[in-house]
Amino acid sequence: MAWFWRGLREGMVTTRYPKRPDTYANAFPAAIAVREAPPPLTAREATELCPTRAITVDDADMAQVDRGRCILCGRCTRGRPDIFTQGHGSETAAPGRTGLIVPQTAGDDTALTALRKDLASRTARFRRSLHIRHIDAGSDGSEEWEIAALLNPVYDIHRLGMFFTASPRHADVLLITGAGARGMAAPLRRTYEATAQPVVVIAAGTDACSGGVYADSYATHSGLAEMVDVDIWVPGSPPSPFSLLHGLLLATGRLTAKGLSA
Ligand code: SF4
């Protein structure tokens, strides 16, 4: 009976996201942001700060962060808090690889809007029901914990008509984690070919986006792009369940991509 009284006392725990914004989602330290009008940074400082080469500088010595390479170690926010800050919010997924690079330019925004529209028109039929096949292509296991959480009472993706399936033949989406293990290249290709078209491929996590700290080693590629055409990129090491959900909603055109508030 204890669980019954506890349920009554605590009420409904399931998020209303995306119908309503969720303060819990917005509290996640989800990605690194560059402050407005930051001081310049040299290329050498950028290299010394970031262990994964996620930080680069442009011709005017202004810093850029590639969230698809960022492992959220926090070295940059501790070392140069005048330039880098922890961005909060969970809407971090993007329909193009360049969408993970901040700050964005006006040109990037136009290109991403076009990509988003194209994807939404391809996947309009997925809006009411979506079947997801998860594939581990060399993950460290952290992304899998967050994916499993999508099924718990807090996130409960079944309420959105989203379901995991064991067979690629029943799948609309391939949700792929891992840095791209070389041994997974052939199985991944076979899984992709066994999936009915149109299929949306989501790279889930920094390792999947860029290979992370093990990029281009004897055992792994530099992320999934070398193995399969990716439609949606979800950064994070690991991405939170809300960020994964954002990627799934983008894949079906049920949500427009928004910037992350710093
Ligand atoms: S938090 Fe990300 S961008 Fe900053 S130093 Fe670590 S890996 Fe690099």
Kindly list the characteristics that best describe this protein:
262 residues; Alpha-Beta Plaits; binds iron/sulfur cluster; three-stranded antiparallel β-sheet; globular; alpha/beta; five-stranded parallel β-sheet; Rossmann fold; 9 helices; 2 domains; 29% helix
Distance between the termini: 44 Å
What low-confidence regions span 5 or more consecutive residues with pLDDT below 50?
none
What fraction, in percent, of the residue positions are helical?
25-40%
Q: Tell me the strand percentage band.
A: 15-25%
Overall geometric form: globular
Given helix and strand content, the structural type is alpha/beta
Total helical elements: 9
Report on the architecture of this protein.
The protein has 262 residues and is of the alpha/beta class. The chain folds into two domains: 66 residues, Alpha-Beta Plaits (2-Layer Sandwich), CATH 3.30.70.20; 155 residues, Rossmann fold (3-Layer(aba) Sandwich). It has nine helices and ten strands. The radius of gyration is 19 Å and the shape is globular. The model has no long low-confidence stretch (mean pLDDT 89). It binds iron/sulfur cluster (SF4). The site of iron/sulfur cluster has 14 residues, from helix 4.
